[in-house]
Amino acid sequence: MSSSVETRTGGNRSPGGRHNNGRHPDLARIVRRETHSSRAAVAIAAAVLVMVLAGYGLLEAAVHAIGQPPWLIEPQVAAEQLTALPAGISPLLLGAIGAVLAMLGLIFFLNGIAPGRRARHTLAGAWHEAGRPAVVIDDEVIASSLARRARLAANVMPEQVMVVVSQRQVMVNVRPTSGVPVDGDALLAAVQDELDQMALDPQPAARINVAPSGVVGA
């Protein structure tokens, strides 16, 4: 699946009234939105977690204020147990809890600083110029095209080729037919030629993996 966004020329102006030389001011933003994943899910999860913890603390404080028994644990007792750590708790359990908290913190931290990307590429070219469309292609479409080219170059069946496309790399896995050798260099050249014709941005590097054992031909 691919999508394209086309710009229009002739008198485009920025919000402040200045000319933008024919460039659509929102095109780059649209392309980024199509190729980068939203962090809304992570933000919502963090907000819900904070709300639950805050609500529980408020509930325990209210129960304690009216002289009722705690719902789970008294805030004062919980504070005393926290300050007394690691006494009264198994080191193995304490280490497990620390590892889980560290993992959750690392997940939120990486989601906060790392650029989230969707499994998509754009076609390189002068799409940022006036009148040029921006084309965004799913990695599944790229993998299908590369698998077909690799299958023809290796002379194998479709089920003997598997292509994995990532942001910076394309891995082509081929299981040759028994008794029919596969020229790895020719296969790599064919896949690289297909990538060059696509002109992806960013351009992934091609790698070939030919299985040492073949499959019985039909």
TrEMBL record:
Residues 1-12 have a biased composition (Polar residues). Keywords: Membrane, Transmembrane, Transmembrane helix. Residues 1-26 are annotated as: Disordered. The chain crosses the membrane at residues 40-59, 92-113. The keyword Membrane applies. This is DNA/RNA endonuclease G.
